[in-house]
Amino acid sequence: MILEGFKISTLQEKVKPDWSKDYMFGYQFLNGCNPVMIRKCMEIPDKFPVTHEMVKGSLKTGVTLQEELKAGNIYIVDYEILKGVPTSSDQLYLTAPLCLLYKNRLDQIVPIAIQVSLSQTPGEESPIFLPSDNEHDWMLAKMWVKSANFLVHQLVTHLLKTHLISEVFEMAMHRQLPLVHPVYKLLKPHIHFTIAINTLAREKLINEGGVICKISSINKVGMAKVIQSAMETLTYESLCFPEAIEARGMEDVPKYYYRDDGMKIWEAIHNYVSAVVKIYYVSDEAVKSDGEIQDFVKDVSYGMNNSDKFPVTLSTREELVKYLSVVIFTASAQHAAVNFGQFDWYGWIPNNPSTMRKAPPKLKGQVDMDYIMESLPDHQRSCQVLGTVWALSQFQNNELYLGTYPEMCFTEEPVKEAIKAFRKKLDEVTKEIKSRNEGLALEYCYLSPDRIPNSVAI
Fold it and tell me: For the whole model, what pTM was predicted?
């Protein structure tokens, strides 16, 4: 049933027929709403005892699992962050799945083994499901992974690493930079409405009894535990797009359009910021001696509550360029990449269940379609999910997209020229992405510059 006022997206129409197929499951870890969880796997972890005998039917003929690990063709998604998180009800369930994926001969990323358990403790009660199992066992195992992915995406990838991070940058900017400071002028368009939208989120989405509690398996205590755990591993480098891609070993995986388009946007932002910084800072010493910039950076590190993993000073112009690129990229491109595809990918409930109503099976061969239907979210929760992700996926009527600065805070001609060059580059990237998408069965548009708002405002 389609709720009144909703219109199925073009991409969603393509997702629905193939949502349960392995290639579609794997594709979403590259180009869906949460394209940051997958990483290259060079060694099977002890907590996920997958053997060659288990997966040999999924590998190329004549090669072993160990050989494919060494060749860099094995990937892993690990939801350890959900281990031990309390559920809000004994009628709702949450697990911390592990999923092994494989780059096959068609250059598709497909799942080859899934362990679904509450504690990530291997054993008889934590079976490892395989594509060779019966179709209902395998379908349900993939649903458990996607249900965990839904929660981690909403709380960590989306809320923490775009909304809340951008708010820290904005607060520090208002506290430490005067309105006439060039960096204040540079960042101003990219913090527009962020505190306001985050205030609404605290009142409506992540509060006790709010939307997230209603549609998922956890309450406010569980949400806090997940976010606190994510903060423990959050680093400045993880917000730097090229370093983040490299850290996960994802530089060469094919058809990773999030990476390809993201690198182009990062480069465009970096070049723009570099041009502006060089106008106002004639040397590295000028950066070091700017007390307001140093106070801004120090304030951000305190605001992250993780100061040992974030810079407390900047010593060179290049360090300042990189830092400001992180601020702008996070608020614009990264938020766009993880926000505006939600109705596309979450609008078909079985593809990404927001919660599960039955405990995961501890034995194979016990699952049928009735079991699956009883596991999926009920009608009320499904309607709430649809309404939420539809609203979050909408652009504003007066949206200002990346590089569009009608206020023109800068009056200096060299900066105006830098903005023109930035827009020109973004237009080129938009055309490249449009041309690329014409040849794709599933277009990737979330990082097209004409669809990237300047700031976190929804």
Answer: 0.97
